[in-house]
Amino acid sequence: MKIIAALFLDDIQTRPVPGPSTRLDLSGVQFSAPAPGPVPVTVAPHLVVVVWCPPDAEGFGALEVVFRSMADDGAIDAEAEPIARNVQPLQIEPGKFNYRLVRAELPFTEYGSIVAECKMGDGPVHPVPYTLLPPVE
Question: Which pLDDT belongs to residue 78?
């Protein structure tokens, strides 16, 4: 199985269209957000991961998302303890798509960025950055 897209967002809706086919309506796609208050603060943004199962695959896998701190220069410390980790089993009919929502509580002691490292099994890592900004006054 392969990750097609991974984004932080406010909402996802599905709707059928003739075919049969399905549409994913994504709203509030974001890469940053103002903090709900001064740090330290914990936020829980929604991450959606869209996955495709090739027609010749067996349709079973595990989605793993590891949230890590990111330095101001964009470097990720892969050796540091993860902020949060989520592993979900995934079953998709071969030739089809599906998605999973991942919601982790992310503590921030200062404003800055984290990265969600998403991967299917032993596949490649797909990094998705998220930046917490100072609150809006």
Answer: 75
Over 90: is that where the pLDDT of 9 sits? yes
- Is the pLDDT at 108 greater than 90? The verdict is yes
CA 36 to chain centroid: 20
pLDDT at 28 (0 to 100): 95
Q: Which two tokens stand for residue 5?
A: 């897209």
Higher pLDDT, 108 or 70: 108
Burial 99-128 (b: 16+ CB within 10 A, else e): bbebebebebeebebbbbbbbbeeeebbeb
Q: Are 131 and 13 in contact (CB under 8 A)?
A: no
pTM: 0.91
Multiple choice CATH, 2-133, 3.20.20.80, 3.20.20.70, 2.60.120.460, 2.60.40.10: 2.60.40.10
Sketch the domain layout of the chain as residue ranges: 2-133
The whole-angstrom separation of Cα 112 and Cα 66 is 17
